[in-house]
Amino acid sequence: MAQHKFIDISQDILHGAPVFAGTRVPVKTLFDYLKGGETLAEFLDDFPTVSREQAVNALERAEEDLVDAAVAGRISAKETQGAPRTSRGSHRSGNGMGE
């Protein structure tokens, strides 16, 4: 089994989908929540087996990968400018990470 500090990948768990270590919660579920307009706090409430540290680490790794891809020219400025932004129309304050 390939294992990172916060993510497990094993053919024995969800056919090899990356999951938060020690859980059966796919990492993709976090991004689906955020894409759907939910907050990090809501995700953590719905998946209590995932720690805040694990979720933040996944977001930081994704950010690093996106920046690296942009720097390497694998993502054009046009693609990032056209990316849709979702909003549920709520007037929540904070940074969307439940703070």
Topology, please?
Layout: E1 2-3, E2 7-9, E3 19-20, H1 27-35, H2 40-46, H3 52-71, H4 77-81
Antiparallel strand pairs: 1-2, 2-3
Question: How would you describe this structure to a colleague?
Answer:
By secondary structure, the chain is mostly helical. The protein has one domain: Winged helix-like DNA-binding domain superfamily/Winged helix DNA-binding domain (Arc Repressor Mutant, subunit A), CATH 1.10.10. The chain contains four helices and three strands. The chain has a three-stranded antiparallel beta sheet with strand order 1-2-3, with helices on one face. The protein is globular, with a radius of gyration of 15 Å.
| Chain-averaged pLDDT | 80
Structural class: mainly alpha
Instruction: Write down the CATH class.
Output: Mainly Alpha
- The number of distinct structural domains comes to 1
Pick out its properties:
99 residues, Arc Repressor Mutant, subunit A, three-stranded antiparallel beta sheet, globular, disordered C terminus
Summarize the structure.
This protein is mostly helical and 99 residues long.
